[in-house]
Amino acid sequence: MKRRTFLAGGLATGTALSGLSLAVSPRRATAAAEFEVTRSEAEWQEMLTDLEYEVMREEGTEPAFSSPLHDKKGAGLYHCRGCDLALYSSEHKFDSGTGWPSFYKALPDAIGTKKDRKLIFTRTECHCRRCGSHLGHIFDDGPPPTGKRHCINGVSLEFKPA
Fold first, then answer.
1. Domains by residue range for the chain, with CATH
2. Given 83, 128, 131, 151, the catalytic residue
3. Secondary structure class of 126 (helix, strand, coil)
4. 28-67: per-residue pLDDT in tens?
5. Is 83 noted as a catalytic residue in this protein?
């Protein structure tokens, strides 16, 4: 066997195996000790609907335009459905036209982020910093003053009027 063939085969195998690791739920792979609020998988399933669990614990996405929070206009705060931490203010909400509630910034010390490489390109995933629940993704196409768009799954949030 030639070295070039051996190296190419090893590279292909490594690439394939790294792709397989993405099939493991990112939330399950995260150590629960990283978050202040922890629950067993059974506890999460009991407190959340199937869609909420899929989005918040398995990093799924709700259908576009399906959330009643998408068109919510009142003053108040958007809290994490998993632990009740205040995450976003209605003052920072805007209509992005994407079909999901969108904000140009989060409240201070409310969210955590990590790289998401599940698609062809890398995105920035955001989650509740207290319980680790998946919220959505942050993009660089938002309005001033931040230029960011926090594209958030409505099922991950609860609105509390001011």
1. 25-161 (2.170.150.20)
2. 151
3. strand
4. 444 445 899 999 999 999 999 999 999 999 999 999 999 9
5. no
